[in-house]
Amino acid sequence: MALLHRSGTSLPALWRSRPTAPIVGAVASTHTCTYSQPPSRLRHYSGSSNVTSSRVRSLIDKRAIPSTAIVSSNNRHASTAAMEKPDYQNMYTASSAFFEALWEAGVTHCFVNLGSDHPSIIEAMVKGARERKGNFPKMITCPNEMVAMSMADGYARLTGKPQCVIVHVDVGTQGLGAAVHNAACGRAPVLVFAGLSPFTLEGEHRGTRTEYIHWIQDVPDQKQIVAQYCRYTGEIKTGSNVKQLVNRALQWAKSGPQGPVYLYGAREVMEQEIKPYQLRQSDWEPVKLGSLPTQAVDTIADALAGAKRPMVLTGYGGRNHEFPGALVELANIVPNLRVVDCGGSDMCFPFDHPASLGLNYGGEMSVADADVIVVLDADVPWIPTRVKPNPDAKVFHIDLDPLKQQMPVFYLEAQETYRADSQTAVEQLTEALKTGNHAKKLQSQNVVEIAQKRKEEHEQRLAKIAKAAEPLPDDSFGTGYLCRQVKKLVPEDTLWAIEAVTNTLFVYDNIQPSTPGSWINCGGGGLGWSGGGALGMKLATDAENGGKNKGKFVVQIVGDGTYLFTVPGSVYWISKRYNIPILTIVLNNKGKLLTTT
């Protein structure tokens, strides 16, 4: 794996068989040269394992390859424009505008796996890093595409800020694999960009086809590989509006329900020379969710005030780190309220609060006894074949995506359903319960006695969990004991990247996450998220706290089978290359839990 350098600036390494293609493309395509057969000089450096960074820099900086000849095999498309040597130092291309648009929109990192569709992308990377230092996205080379996507996912999940992934035509898009599913289900805002095989064959435009693989990787509809998982897909067809397309994609990614977006563009388009321009960034903010209607607030508050066994179920409300605090305030006012995390992908409610019933994936038996249920941002509040609400229970569903637009089969038998911001809705309910008839209704109950009973039940639950985590008589121990010991050793503000699968409930019960943003689990079912996810979280916490290793400690807890899916070789290469330290704990359960019916 060779690192390209130009004027001392490191370029991302190009993986697998891909070093050959980008080097050829970066020279031949960017310099507007095609040949009836490759010149020996170019052929030698594209295929040799002895390519040195200094020699490649020499080829690029000194323009060793002639820039005056566009010659096809039959000379039908000789270009007079190519006879003039371009001003590379001052050239501003669609690729330049692409990276400018990312930075101006708040994207600070690009996780890249490059190929023969990216010569102008590479040129823009070098130029931007050299000329816009401190005002240009940082490039993180990722030898595997799923790890790249998972890093962007983890970064966005912790900060709420979308990042960019750059991959290679159709094959790189396919390499994203289950990571796209995870970002879609986990509602993680990520922008993916992929190149397209060139659409010209005979030197008609800069960026025309120069390699065998350009024919092989030309597919009918590349976006369809990931379209059903994306909030938006779009092709960059001209450099003149590349910034608008980037911002449109990011607007989709950041608007609820958040998720991945996919842009793609051919070499000819991305190498197009354009005039620099700016957008007014304030015009591209995400679409904001509304609040509950006044009548809805009154109806739900009245139901909670009069309930004997009220319950809240939430699955991903904690993506918004202000949400848990708002829910705590509601639980403090309603003394008999119980809260269940039914998603486990975020810290939605503090484990140490007396109202917490912990994490349960659709099987919380208390659901059957509740007389009022409020579902807040949850995909699977209960599994009907395990437990159902009482037919007489009042059920209210408040969600940023209540119809679950990407699930063909979904429904909740709710009295009322609202599309609204859950934090805002909770704050509205809390305010309504503080005054007026709702407050009087609450106070008519023995509030102190009810709150004390809830506290005692919570303490009993904690004691039961601690007892179950004790070592066995033969001094062997399980996941619970391990997690309790690890928690004692790491900093109190540690961030946990969890992909323990069948051990997740044991991990949750003994880590007992109580700080917003401290617990992040894969949002979907694509195993292998946690390696890249943990790296992305560490990169993010360092960036948010002033630089390398100034952020919080990050621990990855992963099952032994899932660990193999994380592509450890790629994960640790990135960790070493970019100094991103994480602690990985692999749980060996010595088996696989089989599916039951």
From TrEMBL:
Thiamine pyrophosphate enzyme central domain mapped to chain residues: 297-403
Any one GO CC term of the record: acetolactate synthase complex
Alphabetical list of InterPro entries matching this protein: DHS-like_NAD/FAD-binding_dom, THDP-binding, Thiamin_PyroP_enz_cen_dom, Thiamin_PyroP_enz_TPP-bd_dom, TPP_enz, TPP_enzyme_TPP-bd
The keyword Amino-acid biosynthesis belongs to this UniProt entry's keyword annotation: no
Superkingdom field: Eukaryota
Gene Ontology molecular function: acetolactate synthase activity; flavin adenine dinucleotide binding; magnesium ion binding; thiamine pyrophosphate binding
Domain Thiamine pyrophosphate enzyme TPP-binding residues, every copy: 509-591
Coiled coil: 441-468
Alphabetical UniProt keywords: Coiled coil, Pyruvate, Thiamine pyrophosphate
GO terms classed as biological process: isoleucine biosynthetic process; L-valine biosynthetic process
Residue ranges annotated for the Thiamine pyrophosphate enzyme N-terminal TPP-binding domain, each copy included: 93-224
PANTHER family: PYRUVATE DECARBOXYLASE, THIAMINE PYROPHOSPHATE ENZYMES
Family: Belongs to the TPP enzyme family.
Annotated NCBIfam families: PRK08327.1
Protein's name in the database: Pyruvate decarboxylase
Origin species: Trichoderma simmonsii
